[in-house]
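Contributing new records

If you add data, match the layout below exactly. Sequence lines come first and carry their own label; structure lines follow with theirs. Keep one chain per record. Anything else will be rejected by the validation script.
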Amino acid sequence: MESAEIIKNNQTYWNNHADLWFGTTALPVWGVHFPTEDELHMFGDVSGKKLLEICCGSGHSLKYQAEKGAGELWGVDLSDKQLENAKELLSDSGYSAKLICARMEDELDVPKEYFDYVYSVYGIGWSTDLQATFEHIASYLKKDGIFIFSWNHPLYHCVAWSCGAGNTVCEDGKMVMTRSYHDESYFKMPVHDSEVILSNRKISTYINALSKAGFAVEQLVEETDEASLQAEGGLDDKTLKSKMLPISFCIRARKL
């Protein structure tokens, strides 16, 4: 499957369904059944700092950073509709950001060696060229600048909780492997009345690509939030799964 075809498909999905995702999975939330930024402190103090968000979506994470006193905010997204929502949200909240509609795989029209932080909340996994994306991000950061991103943990798509509900695999109440962890090929996933196209990359793929792009990984978080771990009774499949394995992960890396 060609990169341009995948990007076009996913862009169409987001333009048509942006409103359904308004404000979801945005800071302080890093991911599903996952500790929040208020617990992890992946950023530290962003007062006066220059920040660029990759896949900024509806702008809620940019608003979060503005409220933390960020000095300058930039946001990039593939979807015009997402950026329309982000512009309106920020304007209504009394904030602004420089918003760009572009593909993360391409070199962006942003300053080089300029940003203190580049970050992405559940966005990087959409990239069709991970190495190029990381190398571009490195070029936007100052020396010792920080790159932080979160995404689905790869085990999430490999394991099903066979509790007999929904579309899970029935195997006597056990968790079962339904996809090889080594399989990074693209697959189509039905969402709403459409479908998106994704690759389920291994954790090592992300870490090795970061290293090749000139980053040093400072922190890898692959945890489940405490509330999910302690939850009992009448739980949905995703919560049950989160008690056994991480649903999301987050990486903080420094540009060398």
